[in-house]
Fold:
Amino acid sequence: MKRLVLLAILLGFAGSSRGQTLADSLVHRLASAPADTNRVLLLDQLSDQLKTADVEQSLRYGQQGLRLARRLHYGVGEALLLNKIGRAYFAAEDLANAARYFQQAVRKAQALPQAGQQLTLGLLGLGQVAVMQHDYPESQQYLRQAMRRIQQRLYPVGPRDLVRVQNSLGVMYFDWLSSGKTYPDSIKQLCLRYNTLALRTLQQAGTSGASLAVALNGVGNVHRILARHDSAEYYHRAALRLFQHLGSPYDVAQTQVWLGAALGAQQRPAAAVPLLRAALAGASQLHLPALRADCLLGLAAVLAATNQGGEAYRLARKGHALLDSMQRADQQADLARLRVQFDTEQQRSRVRALTHRTQLQALQARKQQQHLWWLASFLLAVAVGLVVSGSLAWRLRRQHTKLTVVRAEQDRLYALIAHDLRSPLMGFSGLADLLTTYVERKDTARLLGLGVRVRQAADGLRELLDNLLNWALLQRGELRPALEPVPVAELLTELARLYQPAADTAGISLEVATAEAAQVLADRQMTLTVLRNLISNALQATPTGGRITVRAVLVGTQQQLEVSDTGHGISAEELARLMSGSVLLTTTGYRGRAGLGLRLSRLFAQAQGGQLTLRSTVGHGTTAVLALPCPKPVVAVTRAR
Structure:
């Protein structure tokens, strides 16, 4: 009984003749409609109009529309029809099929951005199915999702859309209160709130049809539960007038039952009895056992309060007997259906076992073996694919890292080259200006002195080009050290002979101190290149009257070749940045370059198994230390006679 009442509220059933008139008009239009999207919409409207009056016909129209929508690839129409078919199954209390079609509608609508309304209706349908199954937490979840979508205005929303969700939430909370199950304290307030909101929304929209009457009854039922019987009577009477005007016998009878219950609770049996007797007569004419049982029990309760216990007892027995017969019939129908299904499955199983047992077992064994092989092959392929993909991803990541490092190194190299080229080019530019000036002045003495300066600038540019060539060869792997014992005295003597003229010209003292027997295990040309860069940098950093000292110091198994100057020196912060290779040297008092040459010198030192370090103090000059391994001593082996 309660199930039928709840279903009527959720569907908003009116049962007036106007719905049938509209259905007839739609059938007439359908006869001449071509097989296009308009026909899909007509079938959708027909299915909606007949969902309570003729569920079977509603389902037929809905299935026709669904097949046509799928043939036309009309996604929105497909979602529309899936919801309508689910609604028809819901009206028929086939909750399994209703949930199945509502779920399909939700899945279809989620894939279509333009089907936002159908997604909300699908969620609404799933929530209402959960109400019928008394799964209130799940119903609340679906219905609140639908409400959030409406509040967020994800599609054009009208009052009817809002009322649908508000009314469904109100009914869900009402059924929760009436179910006898435990509920949170807030449920009563939520029930009243959403039923009242649905009524207010309809009143603001100017709606006066069956939807308004259903909302009035919803608010009345809430007031009955809250024991506000005067308010319940007011809302039920307003709903009764609307249903009587619409000509809906079912809703009139159901509203009379609720109104009679409200009057009985107010101790007004004289007003309640006529209403309940009229409702009983209407239920009998409609052949609705559930509603008739509801009327009998309501009338018995009111008569019992008027000391008519005998008639009340008789009516109550009839009502309970009617409910018992309905429940027994339902149980028998369910049991018969389950039994037929079970017997059919058993018969088919026995037939298969008797006729094809051997063949089926062999076939199943072969299929299982094939499936296992396929599964094993698939898993192996997946594993190999994952290994290969992981290896490729690792290599790609490593190559990407290397490429990033190379690009960064390339950028730094370009900056160093630009920095190192600047000094000799600016020198040539200045010499050109001086040459022009001296020629104009016919200053022969100074013109002769420019030769030395031109030579110095040319030597600096040559050193830079040599460094660039060595850098390129080293990066390509074409320049590899040929290690051999090299006398330190020869190296330093050659360097002194090379740079003594430049030092004399700059007014700088160049001192070389070394032990005659000192040797290093090194590549002669690489070592000379490193020392030339260090002495060249020292010459540029040392002011006139300063001193450069080149010496060799033995420290453990390494020979340290030191180049010290008396220049301005380098601060600790600048020295750290210089050794990291991240910036160029801009120390005060430094006239030249310390870019590519210094980087190349460090690489050459590492390639020979040594290292290059710098020590400096501001105001006391800088010392560059090239540490190279000493050759291992040769041990003479004397053979015993």
Remarks:
- The CA atoms of residues 257 and 276 lie 6 Å apart.
- The chain is about 75% helix and 5% strand.
